[in-house]
Amino acid sequence: MLASAALIFVAFVVMLEMALAARGYRPTVLDSESSWFKQRDRASALGSRALIMIGASRIQLDLDLDALRAGTGLEPVQLAVNGSSSMPVLRDLVDDPTIRGTVLIDYYDGTILGAEGEDDAARYERDYKKRGKQVPSGNQMEEWLTSALHMRLRAYADGASPLDSLRLRVLNPEATPQYLITRPDRSRLADYARVKMPDFLYARAIRDVGGGMALGPGANNDERRRAIEQRIDALLPLDNSAFESRVQVIGDLVALLRKRGVAVVFVRLPESGYELEANDKRFPRMSYWDFFASRIGTSTVNFADIPALKYFECPDGSHLDYRDRQAFTERLAASLDLEKMQ
Q1: How far is it, in rounded angstroms, from Cα 81 to Cα 182?
Q2: 33-138+241-341 carries CATH number 3.40.50.1100
Q3: Domain segments of the chain: what residues?
Q4: Rounded-to-integer distance, Cα 104 and Cα 264, Å
Q5: Is 275 exposed, middle or buried (0-12, 13-18, 19+ CB in 10 A)?
Q6: Model pLDDT for residues 17-45, shown as the tens digit of each residue
Q7: How many Cβ atoms are within 10 Å of 265's Cβ, its own excluded?
Q8: How far apart are CA 263 and CA 248, in angstroms?
Q9: CA distances from 93 to 211, 232, 248, 299, 327 (A)
Q10: Which residue, of 88, 180, 189, 285, has the fewest CB within 10 Å?
Q11: pLDDT of residue 317 exceeding 90
């Protein structure tokens, strides 16, 4: 009976994996708090050899860590958190004297302008401090072994369970294509050939710039495009008084890191299409990026100012396709003069 049960279980796993593979699903790591903790420990352990990346989804998707390692001679550590501000992690790095490497920060006007809140980055940083230094326990070993198994099976992709994968991905003919893959180093790959364009682009534009946009569920793409363009045409520059005060706060944090010998670089990563048009109107360069770069007291890199970087296109307006990330990262690394940034 036990042998029969084991055979049925193995057959179910194999058939489920084959069905998911046929639908285009791939194994992927779950981007969790525990995986962030592992990278945060590395940031301290590596000392001056660490190239620590903080920010949100752009720096997770756009940078190839192997290309960074080869181009800078440093060991990349991915501490960016999707949809979160870089400020909680920046404060954590300032407070930790073991941080002695180079910090690469994903610059976005809206993140600098916005107030700090209880996002995932703030929660990760707070929980990390509470955790303190730990000796691996039995529970942690079990978690690591479970994670090692799950990252190799499609049934657990993106944190799903086997039954969820069967119900929502195999048996559902309208299942959302899996276009994002998370690697064990927490970098992410976006394959935009797997999503339906231009629907995906319009949906993101409506979310990012469509405040007050009234579109019914039956709106076609022409109607969406016209509504987005009209919305962007109506955008006005945002008041930058709060931005200026935030730059002062960030500049003080940067100064503390630099005093300790930590190099800090802010990088504005590529934007395209509607995202770029909307942000250029909401955040005029003179009042935002230029002001920031002149007052922050450390090195800055803007993709729009470097010919080798400015022509990369973001399929969704905000992130690079995985096919472009290596070439982009190689060119970005070549533009970073880390010795002058010390």
Answers
A1: 12
A2: no
A3: 33-138+241-341, 199-234
A4: 6
A5: buried
A6: 676 667 777 777 888 898 999 999 999 99
A7: 18
A8: 18
A9: 35, 37, 18, 18, 29
A10: 285
A11: yes
> What residue type is assigned to position 335 of the chain?
S
> Residue 341 corresponds to which tokens in the numbers above?
């940034």
Across 151-224, the runs of DSSP E, i.e. the strands, are 180-182, 188-190
Alpha-carbon 146 to chain mean position: 24
CB neighbour list of residue 13: distance below 8 Å, 6 or more residues apart: 153, 155, 162
Q: How far apart are CA 294 and CA 308, in angstroms?
A: 23
Task: Give tens-digit pLDDT for 249-269.
Answer: 999 999 999 999 999 999 999
Strand residue runs (E) in the chain: 50-54, 75-78, 102-106, 180-182, 188-190, 263-268, 299-302
When computed from its CA atoms, the radius of gyration of the chain, rounded to whole angstroms, is 22
Q: Which residue from 127, 44, 50 is spatially nearest to 81, judged by alpha carbons? A: 127
Q: What is the C-alpha to C-alpha distance for residues 111 and 89, in angstroms, rounded to an integer?
A: 13
User: What per-residue string of b and e applies to 148-183 under the rule 16 or more CB within 10 Å gives b?
Assistant: eebbeebbbbbebebeebbeebbeeeebeebbbbbe
| 64 contact partners, CB below 8 Å, separation of at least 6 | 187, 325, 326, 328, 329, 330
Q: Per-residue pLDDT tens for 152-211?
A: 666 667 667 777 766 777 667 777 778 899 998 999 999 999 898 998 999 888 888 866
Count the neighbouring beta carbons within 10 Å of the beta carbon of residue 77.
27
Q: How far apart are CA 129 and CA 229, in angstroms?
A: 45
How far CA 284 is from CA of 105, 131, 141, 162, 240, in Å, comes to 21, 42, 50, 48, 10
